[in-house]
Amino acid sequence: MSKILGVDSRYLAAGALAIATGGAGYAGYRYYLHRKRRNTREDNVYESQKLLHEYLVFHYGDPKEVLRYDFGPVDSLDFPKRCADLCLSHFKQEPGIPSRALDIGCAVGRSTFELAREFEEALGIDFSHAFVDACNYLKDEGEVDYSVTDEGDLLTHLRARVDASIDRSRTVFQQGDACNLPLNLGQFGCVLAANLICRLPNPFDFLNRLPGLVAPGGILVITSPYTWLKEFTPKSLWLGGYVNANGKEVTGLESLTDTLGPHFELVHQKDMPLFIRETARKNQWTVAHATVWRRKK
Description:
Layout: E1 3-4, E2 7-8, H1 9-20, H2 27-36, H3 49-60, H4 63-66, H5 79-90, E3 100-104, H6 110-115, E4 121-126, H7 129-141, E5 143-151, E6 154-161, E7 171-175, E8 188-194, H8 203-213, E9 214-224, E10 242-243, E11 249-250, H9 252-260, E12 264-277, E13 283-295
Parallel strand pairs: 3-4, 3-8, 4-7, 8-9
Antiparallel strand pairs: 1-2, 5-6, 9-13, 10-11, 12-13
């Protein structure tokens, strides 16, 4: 039996039959993810199918698919695209600055694809195998079916699509650890780390690697809601949200400035709201702080 993207074609055929008969058309892709995740940790929340589908609608959902009401925070939608747009608005293509972008913590890839509109190469890296599998599927096929929870076991079936005007061949996706990135990545004209630093076991390891990743004159964009939690980061390694030994309150921005300051100039900062759909009636509304840094020459 032939295989497509490593999946026995009979499973994809079964998924196609399900579409024709009104069933769950994403069954073949779900099996593909199951096979690809067989060696991953099952207790990792970022490997769960539920979270994968929540991120697919977060990244690719049409406004009415994400927010079904005539009221609500519409300015919070399309956060991954707005992150890429922020990068593109500050990037200056100059001699010696590579036309390469790195999206670290890329999740299911929307920002990476959007960066590929302008950069010759856009590399997306995420710790989650399930997220990277979805990225590579979208790169190969351009679209994927998935479902979102409405209420209890009631679902709505949707389709995520990469804009047809994007050259998907410019993108590369791989699994990786932001605190232990490969040494052979080279340098980039742009590095994006969206809502990543407060989910790392040691954010200082990541920040200290950045001067070697961002080419002189290139830009670094970091967004974070600064939600420091001990289940992700030991309190001794929080960038902010604590009182130090001298009784001074320390914020995430202060630690970013202290750590990045020798190598980067802070050129812009803004608040960026985001909206993550969980069910038809329960959602997350968050305000991330975005900072844009230029690598000193």
